[in-house]
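Open question from group meeting: does this chain pack into something compact, or does most of it stay loose? Before anyone orders reagents, we agreed to write out a predicted structure and look at it together. Recording both the input and the output here so the notebook holds the full record.
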Amino acid sequence: MDDGPDSDPALRVANAELATVREAMRELNRYVEALERGELDKVVLTQRNRMRAVVVSLERFADLEKRAA
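C-alpha cells returned:
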C-alpha cells in the first residue's frame, strides 16, 4: 500500500501546496504570507512521504469552523 502524498485520490493537492515539515520550518513566514494573500489555499505538510498535517489561514479556519457548527 502506498502512503505517499498522492495515495488518497479524494484529496486535491497541488505541488505548490506540498511541503515537508523540515521545509515548512524554514519557510514558515513565506507560507503564512502566501496563505494570507490567497496565493495558497492550504499547505499540506509531509513527513516520511506521508501527509501529516494541513496549515490554513485564520480566515479559512474560521470559515471551516462556521460550516462545521
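Observations to bring back to the group:
The radius of gyration is 13 Å.
Residues 1-6 have pLDDT under 50 and may be disordered.
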